[in-house]
Amino acid sequence: MHIPELISDLALMLLVAGIMTLIFKRFRQPLVLGYIITGFMVGPYFTLVPAVTDTVSISTWSEIGIIILMFSLGLEFNLHKLASVGGTAIITAITEVVSMLAVGFVCGQLMGWSVMNSVFLGGMLSMSSTTIIIKAFEDLGLKGKKFTELVFGTLIVEDIAGIFMMVMLSTIAVSQGISGGELAVHLLKMIFYLALWLILGIYLLPTILKDVQNLMNDETLLIVSLGICFGMVFLAHHLGFSSALGSFLAGSLLAGTIHAEKIEHINKPIRDLFGAVFFISVGMMVDPALIVKYAGPIVLITIATIFGKAALSSLGVLLSGQPLKTAILCGFSLAQIGEFSFIIASLGISLGVISDYIYSIVVAVSVITTFTTPFVIKAAEGSYYYLDKYLPNKVSKYLNRHTSENQSETEKDGDWVAFFKKYFSRLILYSVIMLGIILAGTSLLEPFLAAHLPPKIADILATLVTLILMAPFLKQCLFRKNEYFIPLWFKSATNHLPLIMLLLLRKGTLLFLVMLPISIMLELSTPYILAIAVGLVFLIARSDWLINPYLKIEARFLANFNERKLEARKGKDIGHSWLDERIYVSKFRCSDQVAVLDQTLANLPGTEHSKLKVIKIIRGGKHINIPEGSEHIRANDIVFVAGSDRMLDSFAILTQVELDKKADGMYATLREFIKNQEAYAEDDQLFCYAVTVEKESDLSGVAIKDSKIKSEWGGFLLGLERNLYPILAPDINMHLQENDLVWILGTQEMAGKLAKDDLL
Fold first, then answer.
1. Other CB atoms closer than 10 Å to residue 608's CB: what's the count?
2. HEC profile for 237-262?
3. Cα–Cα distance, 15 to 587 (Å, whole number)
4. What is the signed CA dihedral for 51, 55, 57, 62, rounded to 10 degrees?
5. Composition of the chain by helix, strand, coil, percent to 5
């Protein structure tokens, strides 16, 4: 029986790789180098060992290796990680990637290389090696140090930058030049599809996996996860993107689910196998004759990599506000290239736009910088002391004044930063969702209806369905309040104009999105389109029925997005501490001068939109618990209000009242308020009760505003937990669901009514 060449080739590769990994393990060296040397030994340039013959099949396995490696990289990444890295990692990664792109391009041009070779060389030099850095930190006993966390954060951002870079390089390669307009369009297209896939994936994937959880064992989870991986690869390729992008995105979607660790564990043997084949295939392309021939470029690129990345990465950390010592420790740790550089080189060769000799050069540089990395890291501290000693006094004073060890914590402060973060994240999120709905309506729904209905009816029906699907998101984006708006508005009059312009920008963007499907699918003139769009926006603004479907979508999305965190919280049996962390109580005494005197609670500034609750009024020794909205505030009333710290701050600014704070400048938590009521008579005290919504209870399926909570029980709903996800001050139009945990503030009398209705 004839054995296929692929089997004999794999036997040869894996046997040699097994021996080499044992040797490299014995001498505590990275296994990646062992695989590369294995590839060289079984390649066409080493005659002492039989050579691989079926290079076409091995190339296919190598391509699968890239897909699996990028999928595994995605499994280690999720949006929570990206949000947690902070400005230091982002600034460092951007500085390093952009500057090393330039250094690589200049090096290529100095050596007389083509523009395309130089561009790809810059891409290869811009990416540091996660594998090599982790190995070096473990060997040197540095894991857990503060600067290593900044390095890992930088590597996370670098991975994202690497994905974008591969898209840019592919576009440049296909067009055989750098066209700014084409590149921008391709990048915007990628960003849109990336965001759309993430939103849909987060909304659908965890829910589907949760529904079939009882059917999942290791085998089915492995098959499902790899199916999602290769399905995303196919979809990415169909849309004109690289397979690496599709597999990375598949991994990042699964990274946010409760199955992430298990998927990572059961895929590890497959990743190790195909990853080994990929690195072996890299080694097979190493030509010793080319290394000798290009010894000069190898030395130049190695020097540029070590010194360029060490200096420029340190500069990036310094620019982010970190002190000089931290900057140098981080920068010197990033002074190498590795696995991502091989992937970029493979991309260039597969596209046929870079020369084959570059592979050998990059592998040689990677091998050299792998061995130098521990020594460079060790040299960081000495380099810092040398620099600190010889830096001019003016420079040292400037750095000491403008940098801080606590920069990672303080860099997120500021109302404007918080406002912009919330403003743009919401606007982009809603815009992407609505553009996705428009894309589905115009490219899928409209052609389908046109095939079965008269053209005009099909166009009108497709437009209506598209706009109806967009409506819940339009309403929320138009009228959802940003809690940082009020503090900024009252902080300075100079903030008024930019805030107004940002509001107009948001409304203009949404008006454009309403006009877009109308203009695409209906043959109308611009004035008619504008009039219809304005009328629809006005109608949507007055339609309360749109709120509940949106709130259901949002609650499910947020629960899925935080699924992994919530599961970890459940496993640690933390309980419901979010009430302590996020609900605060403060009070003020109403004097004759305050603006709220004689106003009803329903008309208090800041309460209608901020959802702040007036929970108690003490008037002449009498306690009015959970007062009605028609209650007036009188002189000398002591008024207690509950909400988040931001709600309380905004309320104080709007009403010009002075809210009580503790000695540390913080508000008292709800738990502290309840605990400190011993001085009150028993009937005057307030308590917080947790009620689980049962299937047959009076709360199940009922909107908050229509429930018995206020009207019959005399309580306030402060928040609820749905699928473990906490929702503070939910919208009164939200419908309660079975298994919701509802937090109700009220008196002991209310507790009796809850018990009577079998809710306690």
1. 12
2. HHCCCCHHHHHHHHHHHHHCCCCHHH
3. 75
4. 90
5. 70, 5, 25
Q: What is the DSSP letter of 594?
A: S
The encoded tokens of residue 226 equal 């790899």
Q: Which two tokens stand for residue 565?
A: 């965190």
CB 208 within 8 A of CB 225: no
Q: Is the pLDDT of residue 288 over 70?
A: yes
Per-residue pLDDT tens digits for 431-465:
888 888 888 888 888 888 888 888 888 888 988 88
Task: State the chain's maximal CA–CA distance in angstroms.
Answer: 102
Residue 692: in which H helix or E strand, if any?
strand 687-692
- Nearest CA among 725, 723, 714, 666 for reference residue 689: 714
Higher pLDDT, 546 or 161: 161
CA distance 752 to 758: 10
* CB within 8 Å of 172: residues ≥ 6 apart: 116, 119, 178, 183
Rounded Cα–Cα distance for residues 82 and 93 (Å): 12
Neighbours of 748 (CB within 10 A): 12
At residue 529, what is the residue type?
Answer: I
Q: For the beta carbon of residue 143, count every other beta carbon within 10 angstroms.
A: 12
Q: How far apart are the first and last CA of the chain?
A: 75
Buried b (16+ CB within 10 A) or exposed e, 35-54: bbbbbbbbbebbeeeeebeb
Q: How far is CA 596 from CA 586, 601, 611, 635, 649, in A?
A: 16, 9, 17, 10, 16
Residue 410 has pLDDT above 50, yes or no: no
**Distance (Å, whole) CA 628 – CA 626:** 7
Higher pLDDT, 191 or 712: 712
- Write 91-94 long-range contacts (CB < 8 A, 24+): 91/316, 91/317, 91/319, 91/320, 92/150, 92/154, 92/157, 92/313, 92/316, 92/317, 92/320, 92/330, 93/154, 93/155, 93/157, 93/158, 93/161, 93/316, 94/157, 94/161, 94/316
- Whether residue 76 contacts residue 255, with contact meaning beta carbons closer than 8 Å, is answered with yes
* Bigger pLDDT: 544 vs 691: 691
Sheet containing 613-619, strands listed edge to edge, beginning at the edge strand earlier in sequence: 622-625, 613-619, 638-643, 584-589, 668-669
Interacting residues of 12 by C-beta distance below 8 A, sequence separation 6+: 42, 49, 50, 52
How does residue 104 score in pLDDT terms, banded at 50, 70 and 90? very high
Which residues, in sequence order, are bridge partners of residue 639?
A: 588, 617
Spatial neighbors of 34 by CB under 8 A, at least 6 apart, are: 17, 20, 21, 23, 24
Count Cβ atoms within 10 A of the Cβ of residue 401 and give its class: 0-12 exposed, 13-18 middle, 19 or more buried.
exposed
Beta bridge partners of 735: 703
Within a 10 A sphere around the Cβ of 80, how many other Cβ atoms? 13
> How many CA atoms, within 13 angstroms, populate the side-chain half-sphere of residue 135?
21
Q: Can you read off the two tokens belonging to residue 707?
A: 């429930």
Residue 694 has which token pair? 């049962």
